[in-house]
From TrEMBL:
One example GO MF annotation: alcohol dehydrogenase (NAD+) activity
PROSITE patterns linked to this entry: ADH_ZINC
UniProt GO cellular component terms: cytosol
Xref: PANTHER family: ALCOHOL DEHYDROGENASE, ALCOHOL DEHYDROGENASE-LIKE 6
Domain Alcohol dehydrogenase-like C-terminal intervals: 208-338
Lineage, broadest ranks: Eukaryota, Viridiplantae, Streptophyta, Embryophyta, Tracheophyta
SUPFAM superfamilies membership: GroES-like (SSF50129), NAD(P)-binding Rossmann-fold domains (SSF51735)
Name of the protein this chain belongs to: Alcohol dehydrogenase-like 6
UniProt keyword terms in alphabetical order: Metal-binding, NAD, Oxidoreductase, Zinc
Matches recorded under InterPro entries: ADH-like_C (IPR013149), ADH-like_N (IPR013154), ADH_Zn_CS (IPR002328), GroES-like_sf (IPR011032), NAD(P)-bd_dom_sf (IPR036291)
């Protein structure tokens, strides 16, 4: 006789819990529920720190969703699967995705969008399926972040928000594809569709901006101008394709005027990767009349409203938004992972720090102080 299938139970593990806006994370013992139908429970191996984690952790403008477990760029191993899950098995290596792909809603079927109507960006700190949490401390719920919450030894995600990857992929580097790197590459390739010989300006040379540069370089852009107030970013940027650098603090005139003078009226493509609504207008003014395209992919820390003179659009410029670079996670991420394994795209040089889970607050401080690109947190084995 075959032994009965063991039903997964509650797991008690360590998680870095935020108890209030900007307060240091506290390593707490949390209970992690077993996966519900169409969910999987994942043992997190590595999670990289994204700027949006810091922005949301510090924000006092958002609803007070605390206590909360942040983190969304992660790699891990499937520990258990819920009812109805057929595509994952215990032991599979996976990437988490902060937006999912149900493959059946209007957007998933359209071929035009990655904004899944069923598993889209979750803002309420709950799971998509039942609007409840899978974390608790002494019986009291702990909120999720983007339906991922990877600052925990174990987490539960919807099966539509995870992507199976090769077991040969290094978990401490492939996790970068869960958000920032994929967002930048997709903005260059899918959203802007940069063509050979194009001119490009990128505002913000963090992980996302450098990934845009990498994508532009691989498409054959002739000039890639990086704009950042940190001159060290230019040295880093050269390896990713940045050909020229502008430091706004050293300019005697608006940056857009400098760009226009350098490029005979503006670039073909402009990317806003800072997360500043004011820079969106600057980026729009930096691309050329007629066909100039500006893509915004930063997450604003404050004042989310964008304002621009209508004449910029009347003269033929286009402003587009980009979430996760337009990629459908389940359909597209495996291809990006394979590109990395074939050494066609860079991830390793974007990691500036590797830290143990106990030092997660150090990682947050490094990001706040602008002293890191990607800091990878290694969870206990």
């Amino acid at each position: 006789m075959s032994s009965p299938i063991k039903t997964p139970g509650v797991i008690t593990c360590k998680a870095a819990v935020a108890w209030g806006p900007g307060e240091p994370l506290v390593l707490e013992e949390v209970d992690v529920d077993p996966p519900n139908p169409m969910e999987i429970r994942v043992k997190v191996v590595c999670t990289s720190l994204c700027r949006s984690d810091v922005t949301q952790w510090e924000s006092k403008a958002q609803p007070a969703l605390f206590p909360r477990i942040f983190g969304h760029e992660a790699s891990g191993i499937v520990e258990s699967v819920g009812e109805g899950v057929n595509e994952f098995e215990v032991g599979d290596h996976v990437l988490t995705a902060f937006i999912g792909e149900c493959k059946s809603c209007k957007h998933c079927l359209s071929g035009k969008s990655n904004i899944c109507q069923t598993l889209g960006l979750e803002r309420r700190g709950l799971m998509h399926s039942d609007n409840k949490t899978r974390f608790s401390i002494k019986g009291k719920p702990v909120y999720h972040y983007c339906a991922v919450s990877s600052f925990s030894e174990y987490t539960v995600v919807h099966s539509g928000c995870a992507v199976k990857i090769s077991q040969t992929a290094p978990m401490d580097r492939i996790c970068l594809l869960s958000c920032g790197v994929a967002a930048g590459l997709g903005a260059a390739w899918k959203v802007a569709d940069i063509s050979k010989g194009s001119t490009v300006v990128i505002f913000g040379l963090g992980t996302v901006g450098l990934s845009v540069a990498q994508g532009a370089k691989l498409r054959g852009a002739s000039r890639i101008i990086g704009v950042d107030t940190n001159p060290q970013k230019y040295e880093k940027g050269k390896a990713f394709g940045v050909t020229e650098y502008i430091n706004p603090d050293e300019c005697n005139e608006p940056v857009q005027q400098v760009v226009k003078r350098m490029t005979d009226g503006g670039t073909d493509f402009s990317f806003e990767c800072v997360g500043d609504a004011g820079i969106v207008s600057t980026a729009l003014q930096s691309c050329c009349d007629g066909w100039g395209l500006t893509v915004t992919l930063g997450v604003p820390k404050m004042r989310p409203e964008v304002s621009a003179h209508y004449g910029l659009l009347l003269s033929g410029r286009t402003l587009k938004g980009s979430l996760f670079g337009g990629w459908k996670p389940k359909s597209d991420l495996p291809q990006l992972a394979e590109k990395y394994l074939r050494e066609e795209i860079q991830l390793d040089d974007l990691v500036t720090h590797d830290l143990p889970f106990n030092n997660i607050n150090e990682a947050l401080n490094l990001m706040k102080e602008g002293k890191c690109l990607r800091c990878v947190i290694h969870l206990p084995k």
